[in-house]
Amino acid sequence: MVNRALDYGFNWAYYKQDQIEFEINNESIIFRQLKYFYEKNKNKKGYIKALYLHHILDFFKETHVNIYDINLVFEKFLQNKVILEIPDAEGKKISFQEDLQEIFKLLKDNKKELYEDLKGEYLADL
Q: Which residue, 1, 23, 31, 62, could crosslink 27 as a Cys pair with Cβ 3.0–4.6 Å?
């Protein structure tokens, strides 16, 4: 199992006064990252898309489902790893469904390149 504390953004989201603050609560790392990056730049979603892209590429590496069934990978990613919405400072729900759909479409449209990249590093034995 992958140590979620090593995911990109964890240190950025909790870097304060030259030390990492580890909070003990029920929020997942991805939830904390989404909150941090959403607040960091509310008008641009580049951080959020990069975060989701990082997590889905990790999921391709760590999943036990057939990665060549890209729809199944997306389904399992949505079920097991991703958070689709967070509350903002006022408690209003912020949805990232559209961002995820853009990422899924990008990966589907570029499956050949995706699998070549994965094969080069992770699927050399297939």
A: 31
Q: What is the span of the domain harbouring residue 52? A: 4-121
Give the model confidence (pLDDT) of 81-110 as tens digits.
888 888 887 888 988 899 899 999 999 999
User: Is the distance from CB of 38 to CB of 94 less than 8 angstroms?
Assistant: yes
Q: State which H helix or E strand residue 85 sits in.
A: strand 85-87
pLDDT tens digits along 29-57: 778 888 887 777 766 667 888 888 988 99
Residue 96 within a domain: yes
The answer to whether position 11 is within a domain reads yes
Number of structural domains the chain divides into: 1
Q: Residue 113's CB: how many other CB atoms inside 10 A?
A: 10
- pTM for the whole structure: 0.67
